[in-house]
Design a protein that fits this description.
Layout lengths: L1 H16 L4 H46 L11 E2 H15 L4 H4 E10 L7 E9 L36 E9 L13 E9 L11 E4 L2 E4 L9 E2 L9
Parallel strand pairs: 1-8
Antiparallel strand pairs: 2-3, 2-4, 4-5, 6-7
Helix pairs in contact: 2-3
Protein name: Tight adherence protein TadE
Keywords: Membrane, Transmembrane, Transmembrane helix
Organism: Sphingomonas psychrotolerans
């Protein structure tokens, strides 16, 4: 009996001094923490890259929308619906695998001076594209935004130059996670950008005609609110 107790004590002391499996045990305890930190880091990196790409897309759309139009140096540039559609198609190509119009929506607004009130501005026309049709502009539309101090967030409002035009772009996107949405700061991204139109732009409007001294809607308008139809389907909002 004493021999068995002595053997048990010896075995217990030997196990107590044995540290051969300590590293494996520590690794097993720390693995969930290390794995969570690694996955979170990867997700945050993907989130930041996606947001940066979205910001660049918004800026590119604003820049291209400020340059678009057809015309010579001797006349004001005319903007056609086909120009706007080409602009949006280019944005889709630029987004690549992000799927900009599958997972998001682009809203382009033409900000122009109010026709009669000084230092007031309006959204003259607006075009949209993207499957997220429930997302509307956060800063107005041609129907309601007709006389404001500027278009955009407080402190960063966009105004148009006298007799000129400014293009204001909103890009909204449903973030597509690399691993899991809960590891990212938000699930919805919003970016804005604006550019002044450098060249003179034709903003003529034939929405109305006068018949026998009475102003009425023009049933055959070809350039309502300054955008020429050109025989293509408009990307209306």
């Amino acid at each position: 009996m004493k021999h068995k107790l002595a053997l048990l004590r010896t075995t217990a002391r030997r196990f107590g001094r044995d540290t051969s499996g300590l590293a494996l045990l520590e690794f097993a305890f720390s693995l969930p923490i290390v794995l969570t930190m690694s996955l979170t880091g990867a997700e945050l990196t993907n989130y930041v890259i996606t947001k940066m790409r979205l910001s660049q897309i918004a800026l590119q759309i604003a820049d291209n929308s400020a340059r678009m139009g057809s015309g010579s140096q001797l006349e004001s540039k005319k903007v056609y619906e086909s120009d706007i559609n080409d602009l949006l198609t280019g944005a889709d190509f630029q987004s690549g695998q992000m799927g900009l119009f599958t997972n998001g929506r682009v809203i382009i607004s033409s900000v122009e001076p109010h026709e009669t009130t000084a230092n007031k501005y309006r959204i003259r026309w607006q075009r949209c594209k993207g499957s997220r049709t429930a997302w509307v502009s956060s800063y107005g539309n041609p129907t309601t935004t007709t006389s404001v101090d500027g278009v955009g967030p407080t402190g960063r409002q966009v105004i148009a130059p006298p007799s000129g035009v400014a293009m204001f772009v909103e890009v909204r996107y449903q973030y597509q996670p690399l691993i899991k949405t809960s590891l990212s700061p938000t699930t919805e991204m919003n970016e804005i950008a604006s550019m002044m139109v450098r060249d003179a732009r034709d903003t003529s409007d034939d929405s109305f005609i006068t018949v026998n001294g009475v102003k009425q809607s023009n049933p055959n308008a070809q350039h309502p609110n300054g955008v020429y139809k050109g025989g293509v389907t408009a990307s209306t909002c």
